[in-house]
Every structure is written in structure tokens, then in C-alpha cells.
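Please fill in the sequence for the structure shown.

STRUCTURE ENCODING:
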């Protein structure tokens, strides 16, 4: 079932609309910007992640919506901030990336008591990292040689990593269902960029 937006002819699947509504962060605004970015594409998979951060005495909320369509990855972010003491503002940004441009999908699993881990269950935390080349990070460290007494300068060595977005999903904070949703989304996106079938 799809929810139509009055006057636009655009729609989001009901389960995506419900996930945005459950996140509780200005759902009308978030649904509207996601619908505009998705346009008339089919929604193959989606992930909604809401997080709250504390900056000194200020509480800041943030929601990220990821949508896979047959050809695109749509990313929507929304944040709130105080323009003045009595005026709150929200900023919503969308980005569209061709699936062909997505370079990688990385999942980091944090598992408590790995010696008793049961296959098919979820870990305690999951970090989903996506890269498509918009942001690159260069990690540099001094180069080492095999001689422990060597005092020569061997320059630096490093790695270039692409991590345009990284989401941490915690079973304690977000629920075990959220970890499962993130894993399913990552599976669909990985298959989509790997030439497999996303459905």
C-alpha cells in the first residue's frame, strides 16, 4: 500500500512512511523531502535511523533516511537547531547517488560473548558505512622499518578510505529489530551494486 501525497502524484510505501513517523522527527517534513528525492521511482529497500546527541546543554536530534531504488541510492538528512532562544529551525538535505557510483558497503558487527554466538542472531551493535567517493579520508602514520634500532626517517604511509556516511545502530538503544533492518538493507544494497538482483 502506498501513501499518496496530495497534489504531487508522488508516494512512499506505507512501511517507509510508518518508519519515518515512528522516528518521531518532523515526519511530515521528512516524508515530503524523501518523496521529492525518490520522485516516481520504486522503493526497493529503505532504512530510517534517528539519533539524539548532546552538545553542552543543547539536545540535537538527527534523522537519516536511506532508500534504494532500482538505479539510485537516495540519502536524506534532517537536523534541528536553534536560530534564536525562542525560534527552532530544521534543515533537511537530500542527495541522490547512482548505484553504479556506490563503491562499498561495510558492516562492522560488535558481538558480546563471541564464544557463545549463535549463527543467525544479531550482535549488540552494528555500524553501517557506505562510500561513493564524495568524501575521502586519508589516514597517515609514520612508516616503520624492521630494525628496532633504526633512527632514520622513513616518511609516512597511509590509507585512503571512503566513508561518506556511517550509521551506528545499537540493539540496546534502537532495538534488536533495528539491527535486523539495517542488515537487510545492507544486503539489498550490496546485491544492487554487485550486479545481483535487489528484489
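FILLED IN BY: designer on duty
SEQUENCE:
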Amino acid at each position: 500500500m502506498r501513501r499518496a501525497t496530495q497534489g504531487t502524484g508522488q508516494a512512499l510505501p506505507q512501511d517507509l512512511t510508518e518508519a519515518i513517523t515512528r522516528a518521531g522527527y518532523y515526519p511530515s517534513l521528512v516524508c515530503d523531502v524523501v518523496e521529492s528525492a525518490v520522485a516516481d521511482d520504486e522503493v526497493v529497500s529503505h532504512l530510517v535511523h534517528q539519533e539524539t546527541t548532546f552538545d553542552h546543554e543543547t539536545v540535537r536530534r538527527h534523522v537519516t533516511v536511506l532508500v534504494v531504488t532500482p538505479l539510485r541510492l537516495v540519502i536524506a538528512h534532517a537536523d534541528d537547531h536553534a536560530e534564536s532562544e525562542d525560534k527552532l529551525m530544521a534543515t533537511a538535505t537530500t542527495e541522490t547517488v547512482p548505484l553504479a557510483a556506490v563503491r562499498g558497503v561495510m558492516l562492522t558487527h560488535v558481538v558480546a560473548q563471541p564464544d557463545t554466538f549463535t549463527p543467525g542472531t544479531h550482535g549488540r551493535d552494528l555500524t553501517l558505512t557506505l562510500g561513493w567517493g564524495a568524501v575521502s579520508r586519508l589516514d597517515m602514520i609514520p612508516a616503520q622499518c624492521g630494525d628496532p634500532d633504526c633512527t632514520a626517517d622513513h616518511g609516512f604511509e597511509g590509507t585512503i578510505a571512503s566513508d561518506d556516511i556511517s550509521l551506528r545502530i545499537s540493539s540496546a538503544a534502537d532495538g534488536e529489530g533495528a539491527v535486523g533492518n539495517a542488515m537487510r538493507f545492507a544486503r539489498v544494497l550490496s546485491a544492487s551494486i554487485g550486479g545481483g538482483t535487489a528484489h
